[in-house]
Model the fold of this input.
Amino acid sequence: MSKITDVLSGGSAEEDRLELAPDELAWFDEHGESLPFRLPDYYAGLIDPDNPDDPVRKQAVPSVRENTVQPYELEDPLGEQRYMPVELLIHRYRSRAVFLSSGTCAMYCRHCFRRNFTGTPLQPSIDQIERAAEYLGSHPEIRELLVSGGDPLVLPLRILEAMLSRFRSSRPDLVFRICTRVPVVLPQGVTDAVVQLLSGFREAGIYVVTQYNHPVELSGESLRAVHAFIDAGIPVLNQTVLLKGVNDDEDALADLMNALVRNRIVPYYLFHLDMARGTSHFRVSLERGLRIYAVLKQRLSMLALPEYCVDIPGGGGKVSLSGNGIAARDGSAYVLENREGQRLSYEDPGEV
Ligand code: SF4
Done:
């Protein structure tokens, strides 16, 4: 076994504590074009170095298994490229759009579905912001803008402020959803200046959407960051991704959802894993996901119960698995109904 600092220069004290397993070490030898590695000291400090199956480690430390691409896995699993009317803006659903505000993140989650975009040093140019603002201005049916990426909270604040201000000047009624893992993986990044900046956009609605996947991530430091947003009048919602080896367990998920509610965070979605390249080792079968969700339904209040959803690969849209989204099933072959009433087939690849 080697240490992360043996294969990377400039390692931290926390990284020094992590002995790399053979599959992890092999990634550093042959990671090719895959998502880069970035692990903040804070998040590394949540890892139990003596537990090779630690849920934080699984999300943060790459494995050579990412180099195995299954035939069903896609470069752009949600088919987002098909729905980009202008650069960096995705308009797939009538009432909401996504702006890809940054190519970088505080940590690169090994399960990231947007790994075809994430990990690039992209920052939006004035022209790209302008074109997106013009599109938003001429499409009043868009009610909410998801500011995503990458992670918008790693942008220089002057760029973040200029971007949000331009979008609001184009559409004063536009609700913002700031999609970020900074409160989870680098809570020190939630400074007073960040909170103040975002709270300046409260008048038409601004929400922070985080991604806590395991209760161990709800540390005191992380909660201080989230509470700073909430106390400044910015509601915080959470989207959990169902991940094999991380949280594919009723107890862990029930504990997570209850802890979120106790801390004034709304459990919003539980996402089934998208079919992104090199992520099959994180895949939970749909059948097992549904069994886990059935237990959560029995154990959790309606406030604590997230909506379980899957995206149909290639741009078929979101389907509620907690609602009436499964129209038919024959073994691993599902017919799913999206929110537009379209029925599309979904072959569940199962678990590797
Ligand atoms: S923070 Fe989001 S965009 Fe960035 S690596 Fe994690 S899942 Fe992907």
Observations:
- The chain has two domains: 2-67, 80-347.
